[in-house]
Design the sequence.
């Protein structure tokens, strides 16, 4: 069993109004050092190994459903799942 | 003419859409559940607004994989009119029937109020009943209506006359180029954030949306009914 950690973020060219709101709030709290905030999604998938490489399967899932590549980038890491 | 209103789990403008067609437009209409596998008997397909699948992940992203969407794609390819309003527009974008994607409203707020639109292209099957550059009032109600696409796509939309509605005056959500509604290249798939089905009677504050549905029916009659 593999654990896959997927991060989905808005592309750099896309304005992130949520992130901007959080940045403004941090500034209001006097954290003036914050230059930018981008908000994304974090997904954890538990995947049973099959005859296809897990990277290929995850890439396919990201392109089809988990990210909208018109506005979002994705990256993921695969690690051995700790079995109980 | 017979319309299908596709109902997804979480659709909440399906009844408005049904009412607009049946009681105001006075055409045939049926609700069709999201797992339907045949839309052959319908002449026009309507994807209503709402929060299909709770908007989980992204608006429209899960509905796009509903069984009925294969049939909606077939209907679109067959040249039937397909109209997606609000969440329906988001589903059309996610399914690739229309180009681009939807972002959160620039002001972050959910907006729900009448807005003024300009009919940019009145030569589509959805807008023939409007005058060129006619200003109409139609309500919006959305949190993610900030339309986005890359520069090349925007250029294509402009060149092909695919931008059908623009916000006139104030842009409520920050959408690119004030876009409120676009069609596919062929012109038979329209996605729009404002709700024409909520503007079909003066009692509702505006009847400007009715002409959109009348345009569809007129187009259909012109191409299907042979008068002796």
Sequence:
């Amino acid at each position: 069993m593999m654990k896959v950690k997927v991060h989905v973020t808005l592309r750099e060219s896309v304005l992130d109004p949520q992130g901007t709101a959080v940045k403004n709030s941090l500034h209001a709290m006097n954290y003036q050092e914050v230059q930018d905030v981008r908000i994304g999604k974090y997904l954890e998938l538990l995947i049973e190994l099959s005859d296809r490489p897990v990277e290929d399967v995850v890439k396919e899932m990201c392109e089809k459903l988990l990210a909208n590549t018109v506005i979002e980038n994705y990256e993921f890491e695969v690690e051995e799942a700790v079995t109980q | 003419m017979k319309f299908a209103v596709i109902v997804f789990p979480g659709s909440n403008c399906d009844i408005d859409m049904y009412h607009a067609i049946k009681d105001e437009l006075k055409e045939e209409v049926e609700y069709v559940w999201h797992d339907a596998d045949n839309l052959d008997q319908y002449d026009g397909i309507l994807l209503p607004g709402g929060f299909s699948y709770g908007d989980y992940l992204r608006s429209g992203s899960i509905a796009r994989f509903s069984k009925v969407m294969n049939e909606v794609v077939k209907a679109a390819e067959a040249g039937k009119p397909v109209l997606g309003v609000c969440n329906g527009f988001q589903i059309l974008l996610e399914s690739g029937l229309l180009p681009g994607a939807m972002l959160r409203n620039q002001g972050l707020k959910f907006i729900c109020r009448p807005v003024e639109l300009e009919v940019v292209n009145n030569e589509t099957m959805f807008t023939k009943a409007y005058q060129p550059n006619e200003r109409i009032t139609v309500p919006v109600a959305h949190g993610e209506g900030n339309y986005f696409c890359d520069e090349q796509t925007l250029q294509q939309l402009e060149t092909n006359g695919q931008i059908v509605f623009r916000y006139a005056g104030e842009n409520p959500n920050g959408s690119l180029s004030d876009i409120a509604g676009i069609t596919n290249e062929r012109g038979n798939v329209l996605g729009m954030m404002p709700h024409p089905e909520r503007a079909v009677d003066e009692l509702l504050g505006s009847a400007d949306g009715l002409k959109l549905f009348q345009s569809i029916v007129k187009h259909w009659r012109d191409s299907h009914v042979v008068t002796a």
Notes: The mean pLDDT of chain A is 94.
